[in-house]
Amino acid sequence: TDIGSQKDRVMSEEEWLQKWEMGNIGFHKEQGHPLLQKYLDVLLNGRSGLRIFFPLCGKAVEMKWLADMGHSVVGVEISEQALKDFFAEHSLPYCEEPVPEISGAKKMQSTSGNISLYCCSIYDLSSSIVGKFDGVWDRGALVAVNPCDRQRYVSLMTTLMEKNASYLLVTVSYDPNKHKGPPFYVPESEIKSLFG
Question: What PROSITE patterns has UniProt attached to this entry (predicted)?
Answer without folding.
Answer: SAM_MT_TPMT
